[in-house]
Amino acid sequence: MKHIAILGSTGSIGKNALSVVDTHPDEFKVVGLAANRDVDTLEQQVRQYAPKLVALNEPTAASQLSERIRDLNGTQVLTGTEGLQAVATMAQASQVLDGMGGSAGLLPTLGAIDAGKDIAFVNKEVMVMAGALVNTAVQTNGVNLIPIDGEMSAIFQCLEGARERQAEIYRLLITASGGPFRTLPKEELQSVTPKQALRHPNWKMGQKITVDSATMMNKGLEVIEAKWLFNIELSKIDIVVHPESIIHSMVEWTDGSTIAQLGPTDMRIMIQYALTYPRRLSTPVPRLDLREIRALHFEPVDFEKFPCLSLAYNAAEVGGTLPVVLSSADEVVVEAFLNACIGFMDIPAILARVMDKHTVITDPTLSDILEVDRWAKSTARSIIKNHAQSNKTVTP
User: Fold this and answer.
1) Pairing between strand 237-241 and 169-176?
2) Which has the least CB within 10 A, 106, 236, 303, 395?
3) pLDDT at 396 over 90
4) 345 CB contacts (<8 Å, ≥6 apart)?
5) Which residues neighbour 223 within 8 Å (Cβ) at sequence distance 6 or greater?
6) Residue 102: pLDDT above 90?
7) How far apart are CA 341 and CA 333, in angstroms?
C-alpha cells in the first residue's frame, strides 16, 4: 500500500485524487493533506481519511479546523508555509501529489524532492519558475517526477521507454482545445467577461487555469514546462489546436512516426497513472469510443489573437528569471480579471509591461527566484492599481 500526501486537497485536482483513492482503497493510504483556506472541505476529508498531518495556509482557517476536529485523535493541524512544508516532507509519505497552483507550490515541491519523495504534480508554474533547480534536485535525490497535467502526462506516456533518446525526437506536439474563444472574432475579445472565460468547452478545472486556457497562456506555460521536464530544445516544441481534446498530446519521431495519447477528458486517468506508475489499474471513467466521435480536427495556433503565447515563447527564449516574471505576474493579473478590475485583453498587455520592466538574472538561485516572484507580483499590482484609477485600457 502506497502512503501519499496531497497538497491542494480541496481543489479540483485534490478532490479527483481522493476519488482515485476511493476507487482503490487497498492501494493507497492518505497520510497528509494540505490546502489554503477551505475549512469545510478539509474537515470532511480529515474525517473520512484520518490523515496523520494536515495544514491550512491561512492561520485563522487552521485554528478553526483545530477546534472542529478536537474530537478526533491522531491528526495534527499546522499552518502557514511551514505547515505546507511539513506535509510535503512527512516521513510517513512515500509520494507527494502537488495539486497546488502557482508559486505557492514551489518550496513544498522542492522540499518533498529533497526529502526523497516521488512527486506527482500538476503545478506547471514550479517547472516554469525553477525548472533547472527542480531537475537538479530530482537527479540528486533519485526520485520520480511524474506530471498529472493532461498534455504533459500524455507526452510522458508517449515517451515511455525512450526518455534517454531525445536525439530521436523530431518534435513534441502539445494539443490545445482553443478554449472558449477559439472561434470568437479577435475584436470581440476586449468585451468578454469572467463568466464567459470560465466556460471551458471540454475540461472542468479551477478558475485560474480555466482563464489561462481562455487566453492560451496555459499552452505557453506548458511549452516552458515541457522544455525542462523532457530536456528538449524549445525549437522542437509545437502547439496544435485540437478542439475535441481527445488527443492529449503527441510525440513525432525522426523516422516520421507519431505516437499519440488519447483518452476521455477526465483528470482521474492522469492522476491515477501518476500515483501507480508504471502500473495501470482500472478506472470508473467511461471508455473512449472513436466510432461515436467519428472525426478529429486540428488547426494552427493564432498567435495574433492570443498574444499570451508570444509572451511565453519570448520568456522561454530569453530564459533566466523572465519565465518567473511571466508566471508570477499572471497569477495577479488573472485574479484581477476574475474580480472585474481589468478587461480580458488587459491580461497580456499588463504582462508585457511587467516583463519589459524586469532586468533578467541569467542563472538564478532559489533566493533570486523567490525575490523575482515577489517583485513581479508587486509590479503587476501597481500597474493594475494605476489602471483602475485611470479607468483606461492598458497598452503595452
Assistant:
1) parallel
2) 395
3) no
4) 189, 190, 393
5) 174, 234, 237, 239, 312, 313, 316
6) no
7) 9
CB 241 within 8 A of CB 182: yes
Identity of the amino acid at 46: V
CA dist 387 and 350 (Å) reads 10
Enter the C-alpha cell of residue 28. Answer: 493507497
Task: Give the CA distances from residue 235 to residues 94, 176, 316, in Å, rounded to whole numbers and listed in that order.
Answer: 36, 18, 11
> Do the beta carbons of residue 129 and residue 324 sit within 8 Å?
yes
Contact residues for 34 (Cβ-Cβ < 8 A; gap 6+): 5, 6, 7, 8, 9, 54, 55, 56, 57, 83, 84, 87, 88, 100, 108
Q: 350 is written with which cell numbers? A: 499588463
Domains of the chain: 2-147 (3.40.50.720), 317-390 (1.10.1740.10)
Q: Are 100 and 78 in contact (CB under 8 A)?
A: no
Could you tell me if 57 and 32 are in contact, meaning their C-beta atoms sit under 8 angstroms apart?
Answer: no
Place of cell 485574479: 335
Average pLDDT over residues 224-229: 96
Rounded distance, CA 238 to CA 175, Å? 9
